[in-house]
Amino acid sequence: NYGRWLEVDLGGRTRITAVATQGRYGSSDWQTSYLLMFSDTGHNWRQYRQEGSIEAFLGNSNADSVVQHKLQHPVIARYVRLIPLDWNPNGRIGLRLETYGCPYNSDVVSFSGLSSLLYRLTPRPTQTSGESISLKFKALKNSGILLHAEGQNQHRLTLELEDGKLLLLTLSPDNQHLVSLSSLLDDQHWHHVAVEHHNNHLNLTVDKSTVWVQIPARFSHWDHDQVSVGAEQGIGSQRAKRNFHGCLENLVYNGLNLVDLAEQKDQRVSGNVTFSCDEPVFVAMTFAGPQSFLWLPGGTDPSSVGLSVGLQFRTWNKAGLLLTFDLLKQSGAVWWYLSKARLHLQIHKPGRAPLELSTGSGLNDGQWHSVDLVSGRGHLTITVDGDESTAAHVSPSFPIIAGGQLFFGGCPSESSGQECMNPFKAFQGCMRLLTVDNQPVDLIKVQQRLMGNYSHLQIDMCDIIDRCSPSHCEHEGSCSQSWTTFHCNCSGSGYTGATCHSSIYEQSCEAYKLNGNTSGFYHIDVDGSGPVRPQLVYCDMTEHQTWTVIQHNNSDLTRVRASPGGNQYSAHFEYASDEDQLAAIIGQSEHCEQELTYHCRKSRILNSAEGSPVSWWVGGPGGGHVQTYWGGASAGSQRCGCSLQQNCVDPKHHCNCDADRNEWSSDSGLLTHKETLPVRSLVLGDVQRSGSESAYKVGPLRCLNVTLFRKLCQKNIWNAAFFDKETSYLHFPTFHGELSADISFLFKTTSSSGVFLENLGIKDFIRIELSSSTEVLFSFDVGNGPLGVSVKADFPLNDDRWHRVQAERNVKEASLRIDELPVATQEAPADGHIHLQLNSQLFIGGTASRQKGFRGCIRSLQLNGVTLDLEERANITPGVRPGCPGHCSTYGSLCQNQGQCVDGTRSFSCDCSGSPHSGAFCHREVSASFKPGTSVSFKDLNVWPSSSLRAENICLSFRTSQSPALLLYISSDHRESLALLLNKQGHNSDSLHSKEKLLDFSEPGGAQKYKDFNPFYEAFLSLFFADSDDLDPELSRLASLGFTGCLSSVLFNSISPLKAALLHPNSSSVSITGSLVQYSCGSTSTNQNAAETTHHLSVGTGQPLVNAIRSDSALIGGGIAVVIFVTLSALAVMARFLYRRKGSSQSQEGKTVKPEDGPELPFSSQTSSQNGPTENQKEYFI
């Protein structure tokens, strides 16, 4: 039956490397699967685990063949226990066992918690190429000093056990480093520790985990004078620390066996220890699941006056039943349990209110905690960890005496017939040192069924696992756990998912643009799920380009003032992004640039009598390197841009400023050599001479993935391949996603099925496929058997439109998402294999068998944040073509305001030529502020042939406080014209002039009377806004008043005259009179009571202009004068406030590079429109 085992005593500690099994000779008895357990003492067993999971070994298939298993990690133990899990159903358990290994010898020393050893390293050991410390320890207590070393250079190193974790502390006079590794190291099993010194860092290893610790570079050697073991000794001891209680073996310091020295009674060693490992026997038991319980007989003596129960437990769960029993003569029930990580006691007695007690906190931390329940003589107490100060007391009016049975951890099933009720969760964890009425409970007798009873218990072992050490939560997500699983809190990390693996941000500004976003500040994560953290950048999105802009602490034009006594002026620039973020953006961009401008008067840049540069700048990765070329010149040329353009003010010099003239000059341009960016600092040397004046400007770093003049960058969101045959595929190197794997891509197809991606291992695999026209399947195997998760859409996925697939597999779960559909998940098996082990090539668009291939397009394929270059492989692969057209069918709706989507092989764009708006998606209104006397005329003699014109449409928005006013005037060469007026009563008036008669529709409901009007206009000659010299006399009086206010998004059919005037003012079709200033009108007024409100007019919707009548309201009243007075008063107060705020702001920014105070320079300071959200980059409009 189950629960049997075969135990072997090897006679001494042995290094076990393999086991082999065989069935019973000449029988039908053999086992088909089994577990292995190991022990040093015959108690406190440990199950063999591989990859953190319990490893079940395959047994035999007959009685004669030998099946051998080599252990992935050799085990050092004296005792081996084999536990059969399954056997031949036609026989019984039959077994012959053989172990393979070799004797293990060690030097062991035992510390009692009071003893220690002190080694004086005089003379010091010979220096070796690498310094190291290695040892093994077995701890009986969860805290204590393992080793402390110090020397004359005041550098100290301490290895300390604290709450079951190993701490490494390196201490020097100017800094210290503390690192923690592993946990549950007080489990009374041997653990290996190694510290290796390599130049400026240490490697700390505990068992199979290693961390890297930075230390000062000047400590090239340790130079320790003494090493204390088991306690901290020496003049550097500053606080009382707990001594180590347990055993050490094979303690080696720089090749010197310190335990052997102590055993040989070397004169350099002092201390009192024993050279063996004496340890008490603690028999623990593991409550592994909700069916686990232990039943013990309770007191039956009626004369008893009380009860005492004590135990130790450790768990990760916040809740669970520790003990329950019925009161004597079934007069009530008692429950002793954990809830919210506190200890609680409830006593229910019929006819009385429940009695409740609670104490303790944080009892689910995985540490051993002792709890005691004592009742007697009218007093009841529960205590945690022997702390009487926090004990909970009560004086019940009835005796607390147990009936016949005590149930620990849970209750038997109802079918057992035993009377036990548990209204709480069952306990999952470990217990030991049980006492009942001050008598210890012999759990070995319980295991042998000589006392009490149990179910689903693992006796003589504590099988607790720390699922958060090492933590599988990535990107600094915090890990918490229960007995069966762990949870990652990703709040504030910028990542999401079960293990905080997937970034919540897009990888580039281009990706935000594709989602329909416009210019602004965005977080981007350049490597997706990689190690580089997200960063805040400005995305400058234009119609054809998308710039990533990274700010630094001073992009303003800055006046140079040399410091007294100094010959140079220096400025340092701190960027909003970290070093790894800068490197990632620059490395992944096709083009980067940074403006560098120097305005000068008698201040040279490069020219000096000695021939060396007077000024220079430092740029590039890390600390950067000195650069002596200037903006607009090539790297390493030691020139300025004017030299390459051959237009320097003095041909004898390579920079304008090197002419050393008394007039203002400048050298400016863009730095475009990526290897020298970003600019880190600027040093100006010619600033102290009499009459020298200068100013500089270093713009933000701007990087671009796509340019208009070069081929699209190969690795971005548009990288695509078209598979035109089911047998075609692309192959790449093996995908490595052992613990975490995220895959994302877009596809479009007309086929109903096909494999997108496949990678195989010996047994493991990973595959994503279109299983039907509405379903995508993500399947894999990491050694636990094939698993899959699928998403079924309620719309066809083979509609030849782009669809996004996002798949992730980690140690906790697998997930799949299609477009914006809900995420589907599949939990990983508990205590199963976790490593995905692949070894074949990665196939894209097909499989190794060339079956079930995919036909269609795959784009932007990313594996763990790395974009695969599909186009490069497609160029050399038959049956696959690079690129994939047809983007407008999916993204055409992003083009707004009559913008037209233009499809490309590798991208799409919005053509705004027929829209009054501009921007990447024709979303940005083009508007201008009109002052008295301002007018714009647009003339085009060849707009349309007369035969094609059937209707006209006019759209515009305006904001004004003026009435009456002329908004729009249109005329033709046939003296046909139209004027859009705002009359005095606040109505919009459409006034139309025909060849024969003026028709005025200003009156609501006015008769529409016209005669012989030709609705088919010839080519329009002019379009006027505000003042017009060609108006009918009846309109001249109103037109003479002009228009004062803001006009926006003016469109006449497909002509955008205001847009042409603002964006192309030098065009021959545009004529501007007066001052025309580009200004944002805004779609609505921010103040509901404002005198100016933006109005949107749309005249004509497909009918000829002669039938158009439009009337809209404007909020104009007699209080305009009052509003103007209030506005001017508010502006005066604001100006004074901003003046004071500016002075205050500048005085508080002593640590940043800032513009110097001084006389106004004869050139303007252009502030970048992408200033970050920092105090010294705010804009004010007055």
Structural class: mainly beta
Number of DSSP E strands: 83
Q: Based on Cα principal axes, name the global outline.
A: globular
**Share of residues in helices:** under 10%
Distance N terminus to C terminus?
A: 90 Å
Uncertain stretches: 235-240, 706-714, 943-947, 986-1028, 1083-1093, 1098-1159, 1165-1182
**What can be said about the biggest beta sheet?**
8 strands, antiparallel
Number of helices: 10
Mean pLDDT across every amino acid position = 81
Quote the beta fraction. Answer: 35-45%
Radius of gyration: 41 Å
Key attributes of the depicted protein:
1182 residues, 10 helices, disordered C terminus, Laminin_G, mainly beta, Fibrinogen_a/b/g_C_dom, 7% helix, transmembrane, 8-stranded antiparallel sheet
Model description:
This protein is mainly β. The protein is 7% helix and 39% strand. The chain is built from ten helices and 83 strands. The longest helix has 28 residues. The termini are far apart. It is found in: Membrane. It is a single-pass type I membrane protein. Pfam families: F5_F8_type_C, Laminin_G_2.
List the helices and strands and how they pair.
Layout: E1 6-22, E2 31-39, E3 46-47, E4 49-50, E5 53-54, E6 57-58, E7 67-87, E8 96-103, E9 108-112, E10 117-120, E11 131-139, E12 144-151, E13 156-162, E14 165-171, E15 176-181, E16 191-198, E17 201-206, E18 209-214, E19 224-229, E20 245-253, E21 256-257, H1 258-263, E22 269-271, E23 284-287, E24 293-297, E25 306-314, E26 320-326, E27 333-339, E28 342-348, E29 355-359, E30 369-376, E31 379-384, E32 392-394, E33 405-408, E34 429-436, E35 439-440, H2 443-447, E36 453-455, E37 457-459, E38 478-481, E39 486-489, E40 495-496, E41 502-503, H3 509-514, E42 520-524, E43 535-541, E44 546-550, E45 558-559, E46 569-572, H4 579-588, E47 591-601, E48 616-619, E49 625-627, H5 641-645, E50 665-671, E51 679-684, E52 693-698, E53 701-704, E54 720-723, E55 730-732, E56 741-748, E57 754-760, E58 765-772, E59 775-781, E60 787-792, E61 803-809, E62 813-818, E63 824-827, E64 842-844, E65 856-863, E66 866-867, H6 870-874, E67 880-882, H7 888-891, E68 900-903, E69 908-911, E70 917-918, E71 924-925, E72 927-930, E73 935-938, ...
Antiparallel strand pairs: 1-7, 1-8, 2-3, 2-6, 2-7, 4-5, 9-20, 10-19, 10-22, 11-16, 11-20, 12-13, 12-19, 13-14, 14-15, 16-17, 17-18, 20-21, 23-34, 23-37, 24-33, 24-36, 25-30, 25-34, 26-27, 26-33, 27-28, 28-29, 30-31, 31-32, 34-35, 38-39, 40-41, 42-43, 43-44, 44-53, 45-52, 46-51, 47-50, 47-52, ...
